[in-house]
Amino acid sequence: MKGMISIKNIDNSIKDIDVKGRVITGYLSNFDNKDYDDDVIVKGAFKKSIDERGKSILFLNQHNWSQPHGTFKMLVEDSKGLYFESNPLIDTSYSIDTMKLYEAGIIKEHSIGFVTEKSDYDQKEKVRYIKEVKLYEGSNVTMGANPETPFTGFKSLTLKEANDQVSRIVKMLRNGTLTDETFMQLEIALKQLQKHSFELGKNSLAEPSLKDTQTIIVEPKINKEIEIINQFLKNL
Asked: Which residues contact 112 (CB under 8 A, 6 or more apart)?
């Protein structure tokens, strides 16, 4: 519907993390890539927003307007997509947690909040080509912890990759000092991984393999870590 704000995710979109300077660089959007909504964002779609209000476009935590990290030092369209360099993330608990999650490899996605201004629909291809948007914000996304930004990367996530994600989260739980809100986000992420590993296990029942054995290992491990988070929250 015209005028409604939309959300688009991009996975594996980090280029560099300057932990000391608290600066993140990467991509907020890809060009010429059909997403799960059958939309394609065309190069030039962000130009007007960047030219007219680039300095006021915010870098948010999980699309949460009450948790801004600050603004972007650079927003520019290149041949790949919408490239960004953040200003140093502000010194707040949620921004500090975000840097820790970037560093641990748990945050690997970015997302944009925008309103479509101009688009064409190709009836033959069944694809909408988005040619101009009004960009309001770009956000880091923790594995779809925000219910408005469902994580789609699990569609291609192998059981080994799921195990790797669990290991990263477990390491953060044991070694990191995080806010209660971030703990709850990690709980959601673990539950999503649990569901995904269960689906992988069901799909592989017809062809027994090592994956079936790994599934048995993954789910109890995730359940245990969810219990750790719940116990932490009770003691706050």
From this structure: 7, 8, 28, 29, 82, 135, 137, 138, 139
